[in-house]
Structures are given as structure tokens and as C-alpha cells.
What we know:
The complex is a heterodimer of chains A (386) and B (75).
Chain A (H helix, E strand, L loop, with lengths): L1 H21 L5 E19 L9 H5 L7 E2 L2 E14 L3 E14 L4 H5 L5 E14 L4 E11 L3 E14 L4 E17 L5 E21 L2 E14 L7 E3 L5 E3 L5 E15 L3 E12 L4 E12 L4 E12 L25 E16 L3 E14 L3 E14 L1
Antiparallel strand pairs in A: 1-2, 1-3, 1-19, 3-4, 4-5, 5-6, 6-7, 7-8, 8-9, 9-10, 10-13, 11-12, 13-14, 14-15, 15-16, 16-17, 17-18, 18-19
Chain B lengths: L2 H18 L10 H4 L9 H12 L20
Amino acid sequence: MPMRSLFACWSMFVLLLLTRTVSAEPSLKLERIESRLSGFSQDGHGYQSQAGLPTGAERDRNAPSGQGSERLTVFQPQLRAVFSQGTRLEYSLWLPVDFVTSASPDAVDVTTGASRHERANTVDLATTYKANDHDTLGVRGGFHLEEHLRSWNIGQSYARSFAMNNATAAASANVVLDAFERRKTDGGLNGRASRATANANVSFTQVVSPDTVVYVDYGITRQQGELATNWNVVPFRFGGYVSEIAPRDRLRHSVVVRGAQWLPWRGALKGYYRFYRDDWGVLAHTAELQLAQRFSSLFWMHGDVRYHHQTGVGFFTTSARDLSSVRTADSDLARFSAVTVGGTIVVDVPWHPFGAMRFEAGYARYSRSNDLTMHLATIGTDIVFD
Amino acid sequence: MSVRALVSKLVSLSALACLGGCATVTPDRRGHLADPMMSLQDSPLEAYRKQKMYTSREAAAGGDGTPAGGGCGCQ
């Protein structure tokens, strides 16, 4: 915890330093406004969910046999405004909101139905300072409010470009603090809990040729505190359900490689591969390909396919054997493969004399091998002012 | 081929690709790279949409410039 406090103090210091710089700069100018509206519709089943299963006395008479529903719809509007102040400073204010309607996997809903409709609000403020032609410093902070959860985050980043901007090395660090209610399997309140997440990333981007660019990133994440989703249930071997219990510490590593290749017929091929490993026993590989085609200076589209495979955590079970050991029946932590297929159309419209506008519309289908399917539709606009 | 060997080969290939790129591409030859189709990063709003979609459904969140486990109540 002292390291996290030190990081928070350092971030405040950087923020104050930037504020001091701001006083010497001219007034704010609105640079762009982005908006996006996404809708998710999910269906599936998982052992961690109690939705649709027998409840109360009826449940006690029945040995757990089935999986609960994971039906869920999410309506997600986002708005982001970017302002500049002089040539060096840029601010972004970002407001995503999630309206969630679920089939009540939350234990609270098993007894009350209170959170079948839920709203999650986030505010994120970021500042970047371009110290010179090569060095850029960034600091960000935000908070997240949800029915049972409060979260704060703060982060810093630094990027240096060199070789005539052919290469960029960057590093970032983030700290997230969460506080939330702990729930029993019957939905009753069981005190409060918290967790802390610290994360560091280093990345390198290199222009390889006039038609090729590559990017490599390594990230390490350490989490401590209550890491279980405590309203998730685990079927008990002798009948009924018990709460999920997770280790209180988790260390994650990931390596990402991205590349983009221009194609002679005004197209682009982009590849993405991610290797992930953590000390809960999860080993994951994710690969994504995107093929884009420009049809005119105003109109282009791309198709995407993504494959993800992960091993489950070492303590995944659908039949807990005792009351004390770590266990989860969460289908998200199980072994599975997932495929996403989708596409997006993009239209760029000149908007004289103000600037330019971009419209996007996309659709994707996500399908998991352990009984989860999701459809996603999204539309977005991006207005850039001259 | 073991997973470790696969990963080390991928990292080595990426490093070689980066080293091979030491020949500077002047700004007037970067027209294709400036096309938004070639952008290696999604827009922040699209990246958030993807992050929310995947980190709350898969156990392999974190890294790639983003933290894991904060905010949404996911693992």
C-alpha cells in the first residue's frame, strides 16, 4: 500500500506541475467531440448464476443440477470531448455510461430483484503535455459509480519518439482502487470489501517501411484484496450453493504484438496476437485479423475475426467439496474458446467550414464454447473542428 | 512446438522486424501509414467498448496498456 500512496502523491505532483504550466497558456479550444452508442445482447448459462434456478426452500429441496441464466442486455452511450490549450496541452473529458438489464445473476436479485436494472457511470479526465517534439507526458484520473461498487483510478504515461518519429517508446502506470459490498449467496449484505490493482506497461512502435508498422507491448498487473465476485455461487457437493472464494492476490503478465500492412489495392491488413499468463493458472492466446478496404476517399469498411483460447483457473469447479478452500464456478474463469466475427463501415464527410465528421456503424457476434453468445451493434460519430 | 518456444519466436521476430526498421522512412513517404485504416490503436471509445466486452467475459484481462480488474466489478 505505501507504493500505491507514493504513486498517488507523485501523480498529484505531476498534475499540479501541469496546472502551473496551464496558467501560462492561452484559453481552451474545442478540438473534437466523439460519441458512440453500443448495444450488447447476451444469452447463455453458467454455474455461477442463480438466475432461473429454484430459490429459497424450493432450492434447498433440490440438489443443484443446472446452470443459471446469463441473459443480459447492455446499452452503452459514450461521449468524449477533446480540448487543446496552446500547442502543448491537450485535455480529454470522457463519459461512458452502461445501462444494464440482466436476468439476475446477482444474488441480490434472487431475493429482491433490486438490481435487474442497473446504471454504471464513469468520468475520466486525461491531460497530455507535449514537452517538445519528442517527449509527451500524460496523466489521467477518474471514478466509476455502480449500484454496489465505487472505483477510483489514476495513471501516468510517458512517450518518446525518435528517428524522425519512426519509432516511439512509451511507458505507463495505473492504479485502480475498488470498494464494494460483499454479498451472501441469498443476497444478504455481508460487509464491505476492497481491492487494489497496480499495472505497468512498456511499448515500442516502429515504422518498418512506408507500408508497414509494428507495435510490441508488455504489461504486468498485480491485484490484491477481495478478488472474488462474491455474489457468484458454486454448487456444493452435498446440495445447495456456497459462495465463490478466490485467492487474495493475482499477478498477470501479457505480451501483445500488433502489425499493419498497407495493401496495393487501397486496403490494409492488421494482425494482433496476445499472450497472457497469470498465477491463477490461466494461460491464454488471442489472435485477431482485420482486413480493411477503401472504396473512395470518403468511404471504407473493414471485417474482423478474433479467436481467443484460455485454460481455466486452477480452482474452477462445478461441485465444491468443502467450505474452506478457494473455488469458483464462474464460466468466465473456465477453460473455453471464443470467436468474434464482425464488420464496420466508415464514412468520412467534409464539414466546411467547421472541420470534418466521421460516421461508423458496426456489428459483431461473439460466441463462446461454454454456452455464451452475444450480439453487438455500435454506431459512432467523430467531429473534428478546424 | 511448446507455448514458450512459440512466444519466444514471436517476440524474436517482432524484435527483428523492429531492428529492420532502423532505416528511416521520411515523412513524405508515410502517406499510406497516415490513412486511418492503418491505425494500430482503436479510438478510445471503441477501445473501451472492446475492453468492457472482453474483460468481463474472459479471464485474461490486463496489459496492452490497460489495467485489469478495476471498475466494472470483473475479476
